[in-house]
């Protein structure tokens, strides 16, 4: 009984500790990076305009225009990209479906050879391939996974990608504008809030990486701050030249 309890304890310990982070990022990665993109691009745009000694009204207008233009651009780009990728995948699935219908034995042999190449004993590989090929839809799914590296039942949605990109970019781009909308009269509150947002985004990204939260946060803070500093300097330079 003691041995059984020990084995059960070890099994539970392995189950509890043998977990992995979502290496694909799931919804978190595109959402955080969309917000980060909105933050950096709109902060840089607004500091560049401010560097040219523009009025507060012009800075706010530039920020709102940058928010709208960037969000719609991100949404359109994501929709087109994901839709094109999905159409390509569906076309390849159609090719595989036709091959399974026309040459089922060849496809079964192909699957068996693939398992053999991975170290499965030949006779066992042929039997596994035969059983898996009995159901056409299951066979299609397995061939898609093994040959194309995709899951036919989990294809990305262009609409979801577009909406999430639009929302996350708009949210990030709103941060630098928000202090002005709440009555701020200088650029510094917008810069500080945007930099805090960049640090937070970087820290959240650490959830899908091997880096510590403070390292990721400081790295993104430094990159966003550098972008804002460069565009402010360029705005000041060209503003003086134009003026």
Walk me through this protein's architecture.
This protein is mainly α. It has helices spanning 2-17, 28-51, 56-102, 104-117, 122-132, 136-148, 158-181, 188-205, 213-242. 81% of the residues lie in helices and 0% in strands. α2 runs parallel beside α7 and α2 runs antiparallel to α8. It is elongated and about 75 Å long.
How many β-strand stretches?
0
Give the ordered list of helices and strands: HHHHHHHHH
Helix content range: over 70%
Low-confidence stretches: 1-5, 22-26
The best one-word shape is elongated
Question: Secondary-structure map with pairings?
Answer:
Layout: H1 2-17, H2 28-51, H3 56-102, H4 104-117, H5 122-132, H6 136-148, H7 158-181, H8 188-205, H9 213-242
Helix pairs in contact: 2-3, 2-7, 2-8, 2-9, 3-4, 3-6, 3-7, 4-5, 7-8, 8-9
Brief digest:
The chain is mainly α and 243 residues long. The chain has 9 helices and no strands.
List keywords for this structure.
mainly alpha; 9 helices; 81% helix; 0% strand
